[in-house]
Design goal:
By secondary structure, the chain is of the alpha/beta class. The protein has a 7-stranded mixed sheet. Helix 3 crosses helix 4. The longest helix has 24 residues. It is globular, with a radius of gyration of 21 Å. The mean pLDDT is 96.
Length: 452
């Protein structure tokens, strides 16, 4: 855990003094050959340490941070226990791993347009056996390229060594874990931090989808920020919305229309932080490039993520955690080390979650920087670079010894989500002995107007 924490601390320039006030309690680990629970505890601890350091520079209070290792591991999975209702299925029926002529490939088809893209390439109806039979006749790299060229999402399985030799793997390895800089534009923001709400008064505009970005903004909401999530019309991600909209208001805007862009820029002009997860060229194509954003809101804290990294031939490729695990060698290493006959990914989407906490920490660091200097701030991270962090650490023996959940691990209050009543796990972290607190239950997408 300490290795990960020090890497993240250094990447974000969190002070050693703030880091020294972090303690981790509890034992156990998620079952993986990779140190997933170490990464969970470290990334959450780093985000909380950044918040504690912000408290020191704003209200002069020295705050300790305590992280529960078992709860941090659980927060990398599902935190919600529905009462008399069920969460939707996590995966589209066509999504999954398929064996091709020369190896394995994963198709990511949760979004309807991504599913259509894969089916068009394969020339089959949306039926699992038909897809499997069609994939069997393809070389996996050719199929990956064909699906991606058709604006779909797929990843051929590589080994760790394959990824190290791959041009994109080499590019990502040369990138910083979090690229960050202070910008020349100046602006201010009225924030009103307190011990239990370090980000009180901070407005966060959330332009992200599954899963890293929403995890980041959920954490910021737990610190007291006002978070407004904006999605395009008709977008949905039903299996994760009850998990990640905790503490947020959710609106919709069509950014491909001039009136939608104008409204977005009005919202941005009143925001402190923008978190976005569009592909690296997508906002530029919409006329919302970095200059436009900074003109709209001088002093903006601009936090960005992508899947495969910010340099190299795949820098604009569509991707998700499960695909990056296939590309970066994680699924192959899990299969080989466990003696299984099919790709064996991490037990949770740890690249998404860890990157989410890196982004949250970067946003808090940006607010602290603007508080000190009045300048804007930019930071960016990627799932693939987080994968590099995980893969560079020593591997483990896969043992499932995470303690069973206890009654006291659940919040005593029933959360009145928009989907039905539910129990939520307790916060995995306390800052100044105060747990994170969310003022709004999980909401449906597009359930609020696009306004502050």
């Amino acid at each position: 855990m300490q290795h990960f924490f020090e890497e993240i601390r250094a990447a974000l320039d969190i002070s050693r003094t703030a880091a020294s006030r972090v303690s981790v309690t509890g034992q156990g680990a998620l079952p993986s050959i990779f140190a997933v629970s170490d990464l969970a505890a470290a990334s959450i601890a780093a985000a909380a340490a950044a918040a504690a350091e912000l408290l020191e520079c704003t209200i002069g209070t020295t705050a300790s941070v305590e992280v529960s290792r078992p709860l941090a591991s659980r927060w990398f999975g599902c935190t919600l226990q529905p009462i008399s209702w069920n969460l939707p299925a996590a995966w589209d029926p066509i999504a999954g791993d398929y064996r091709g002529k020369d190896g394995w490939i994963r198709l990511h088809t949760n979004a309807p347009h991504h599913r259509l893209a894969a089916l068009q390439v394969l020339g089959v109806e949306p039926e699992k056996d038909a897809v499997s039979e069609a994939v069997a006749g393809w070389d996996i790299e050719r199929l990956e390229s064909a699906v991606v060229d058709n604006k779909g999402c797929a990843a051929a399985m590589m080994s760790l060594a394959d990824w190290d030799r791959h041009s994109q793997g080499r590019s990502v390895s040369a990138e910083p874990l979090v690229a960050r800089r202070t910008t020349e534009d100046a602006g201010s923001g009225e924030i009103s931090p307190t011990l239990d709400r370090p980000l009180a008064g901070v407005r966060v505009l959330d332009l992200t989808r599954v899963l890293a970005g929403p995890v980041a903004t959920r954490f910021l909401a737990g610190l007291g920020a006002e978070v407004l999530r904006v999605d395009p019309p008709h977008w949905d991600e039903p299996s994760v919305v009850p998990e990640v909209t905790l503490g947020k208001r959710c609106a919709e805007l069509e950014l491909r229309r001039s009136d939608g862009r104008e409204r977005f820029l009005e919202l941005l002009s009143q925001a402190d932080v923008l978190v976005h997860g569009y592909r690296s060229d997508a906002l530029d194509d919409l006329g919302l490039d970095v200059s436009c954003r900074r003109n709209a809101r001088p002093g903006l804290v601009d936090i960005a993520l992508d899947a495969y990294g910010w340099t190299g031939p795949w820098r604009a490729r569509r991707g998700f955690d499960s695909l990056v695990q296939m590309s970066a060698g994680i699924a192959e290493a899990g299969m080989r080390r466990s003696g299984k006959v099919q790709p064996t990914p991490l037990p949770v989407q740890a690249l998404d979650h860890a990157t989410g906490y890196l982004l949250a920490a970067a946003a808090v660091r940006g607010i602290a920087e603007r508080t000190r200097t009045g300048r804007g701030y930019e930071a960016r991270a990627s799932l693939a670079r987080t994968a590099r962090l995980l893969c560079d650490a020593p591997q483990c023996d896969p043992s499932d010894d995470l303690p069973a959940l206890r009654e006291e691990d659940w919040s005593p209050d029933v959360e009145a989500t928009a989907f039905g009543p539910a129990r939520r796990l307790q916060s995995p972290v306390t800052i100044a002995e105060r747990p994170l607190r969310w003022e709004r239950p999980a909401a449906r997408l597009a359930s609020s107007p696009p306004s502050w």
